[in-house]
Amino acid sequence: MRIIDTDNFGGAYPNEKFHLLCMPLAMAEKICDFINEQYAEEFGPDNFSRYFKVVENDYELQPGFEG
Fold first, then answer.
1. Is 61 among the domain residues?
2. In a domain, 11, yes or no
3. Rounded CA separation 13/29 (Å)
4. How buried is residue 54: exposed, middle or buried, by Cβ count under 10 Å (0-12/13-18/19+)?
5. First CA to last CA across the chain, in angstroms?
6. What is the pLDDT along the chain (67 residues), one digit of tens a residue?
7. Exposed / middle / buried, residue 25 (Cβ in 10 Å: 0-12, 13-18, 19+)
8. Domains of the chain: total
9. Which of 25, 13, 31, 12 is nearest to 56 (CA)?
10. How many other β-carbons are positioned within 10 Å of the β-carbon of residue 23?
């Protein structure tokens, strides 16, 4: 599994990035939960622009706005 950050507001151009690669699902989920909880505590649950999530190893990143 991999960890990526993506747009927390569901935008059309999330400009995703890989952060940690190839790890067991349980470990990836714990790391994502921790990071997202830290952002929520600092900025409020609805006020941070990026969100971390677990994806499959073969996940294709969604691009950012190129214009």
1. no
2. no
3. 24
4. buried
5. 31
6. 999 999 988 888 999 999 988 999 999 999 999 999 998 998 887 788 899 999 999 999 999 987 5
7. exposed
8. 1
9. 25
10. 16
Q: What is the Cβ-side half-sphere exposure of residue 54, based on CA atoms within 13 angstroms?
A: 14
Residue 27 included in any domain: yes
Strand partners for 5: 17, 52
CA 55 – CA 6 distance, rounded (Å): 11
Is the residue at 15 inside a domain? Answer: no
* Cβ neighbours for 58, distance < 8 A, ≥ 6 positions apart: none
> d(Cα 35, Cα 14) in Å, to the nearest integer?
18
d(CA 34, CA 1): 16
What is the pTM assigned to this prediction?
0.84
Residue 59 and residue 3 in contact, taking contact as beta carbons nearer than 8 Å: no
